[in-house]
Amino acid sequence: SGVHEDMKEKEYFVQREVLDEIRLDEVAQKGTWSVKPTLGERVKESLRCSGPRLKHILLSWIPVLGWLPRYSFRENAIGDLISGCSVGIMHLPQGMAYALLASLRPVFGLYTSLYPVLVYFIFGTSRHISIGTFAVISIMIGSVTERLAPDSNFIVNGTNGTEIVNLDERDAYRVQIACSLTVLAGIFQILLGVVRFGFVVTYLSEPLVRGYTTGSACHVCVSQLKYLFGVAPSRFTGPLSLIYTLVDLCKLLPQTKLPELVVSLVALSVLIVVKEVNACYRQKLPLPIPIELIVVTATIITHFCGLTDKYYIDVVGEIPSGLKAPRAPDATLFSKVLGDAFAVAIVGYAINISLGKTFALKHGYKVDSNQELVALGLSNTVGGFFQCYSVTSSLSRSLVQESTGGKTQVAGLISSIIVLITVLKIGSLFEDLPKAVLSTIVFVNLKGMFKQFMDVPSLWKTNKVDLLVWLVTFTSTILLNLDLGLAVSIGFSMLTVIFRTQLPHYSILGNVPGTDLYLDTEKYKEAKEIPGIKIFRSSTTIYYTNAEMYLEVLQEKSGIEIGKLLTAKKKQQAKQKRKQEKEKKKAKKEEKKQKKAVKHLPNGTFSLKESEINKRKVSEETNGQRQGNGVAANGLSKGRVNWAYQPDTTISESDSDTGCHGDDSITQVSHHSDEEKGKASGSGTHSIILDISTTSFVDSVTVKTLKNIFRDFGEVDLEIYLAGCQACVVEQLETAGFFSESIPKSRLFVTVHDAVLHILNKLGQKDFMLDMSCNTQM
Description:
Main location: membrane
Helix content: 55-70%
Low-confidence stretches: 604-611, 624-682
Transmembrane segments: 98-123, 177-199, 261-281, 293-313, 333-355, 467-499
Subcellular location: Membrane
GO molecular function, one term: secondary active sulfate transmembrane transporter activity
Structural class: mainly alpha
Region (Disordered): 571-634, 650-684
């Protein structure tokens, strides 16, 4: 009884009239009082200047003016100081290591960890992300610099007729390429942000970004193997370059420099062990152990043990002290790096915004996607003038910034000060740092990206289409390189969306007895089709790519083949026409015979005979007409009267009526058949309801398809109704001139249930209607 009482509490009762679109407009009082401003009014409003408006514009474009004056030293200062120092210490080794990925000298990695961070402090909206060098962006830059400035372009004749590479000239040109690409990527980001195009990143789905970054991590890994083994593989470009590089590295393994391999393995072991300790005791340690900085002190061992001279270990080399004056990028290079710049702009922003939104959601604040685009663009553009390469947020540094107590971008400001001090005063101390140590730092920081391989089993269980996107992105990135791989993966991701909308799930709906619910009859056992009514629904919007399929599946699911029915109807009409013409000819012949017979009669009997002939003629025509109606009625009734609607008593009564009342009953059947013409389809269906509640917009092809459905099905005497149409779609249909005398608005109903009740009421199915419109239970 307790369960029954709980169920009673969950019941609800609704009593209202059946609503079509016209009646809904009256009842709900549809109006236009929520008028949108016109384009002219919006332009006028945007150009209007006032104090509050100016303040709002300034705060939205320069966010630091909003939060810095309200900065709480008591709550935030200590946390920001600790996290700023921790991130600054990470910037030093990562900046130098990632510069090698970009095929630049390590000092340019330090510059990149300085200027862009200061710019983001002013214009950024995320409080926790750490802007600076990042492996994926660095390898993208490196692929461009090595393609446009290969070693082969800078070979000069050395002593004894040997050929050597002019490293200074090569590195200077590579810096120009990197700066030009960075400035152009920044301009793209600023332009997209100004026109409020931040949503463009939504086209890069999470599986795509994760698959791409995992593929990029493989490129990073392979590019650093040469430093680990101390070998110099050939430079490959274009598709499959990663495979060729790996093959070449394997061939060069016998030439491995053992001292560099030992340095690499020792550094790698220390880094992995201490990083795991940091992860395990994250809650207990006040600060993570700055192992990367400790490992970098290997420069002391290298310097005092003379490893460079003894074992020819490859080291960082000269790191000039002080800052360089800003320099305009080489604009002549823009045309050569246009595509790469756009790819860097999009990928950098995608990584940045996904990380920013993750932290914002965790800490309860909002990140402005358009402003982030502008902030990142300005960081790149300004940085490009100061010989920096493209930046984005780093996951490892951002996690350290957040976990060590960072609350605002003041932590970023402090980290950039640490980098500035290093560049100005102590940069030269890192000149003897082995490149193998920097490459191990890169390797260890790739751990998070390689963990993304665990997405594969997870996506296999949850969504196989997303898994396919991940795998195609990863494979194309590995095989086709970073730029072409990104283009292919975006194209494939778009195709999956198109195919999903182009191949939706179509279903015939049935009513759950005693409710107003209409569910897929193939999925729900209790959902029963209403006799004579087909309710058809598509799982997605009907538009030009799937409109034709919508019509085909409608015919297939409803069992009504329009083409055959129209052909059969035309044949029937032609047959009827021929029969009528024969009857007319026969009548004319009879008339001529009668006239001849009259001419041979005496004058006195003419008028009498004429009157009798006329009477007989009228009588014959009347009988013929009755017989024709009777035949037509009987013909129409075959396969037309859906006795599923009629109780057995009705059938017997109609049969007895036919037997007793003769001609009157035939007239009644004929009249009844005219009302239910739809039953001529042979399937017993007289009405079709199209549930278009899932349709969010209509294009010209959709409108044309719906018109054709109304016209063609109407020609075979089937009534078509629309249900569940959204208000915006109704407006689009009105604009497209969909409604007319043949398709009135009264054919459009608020819900499927309203349409069903209207049809049953129209057909006089009172008994069935009472069962349908009973109190709805939840």
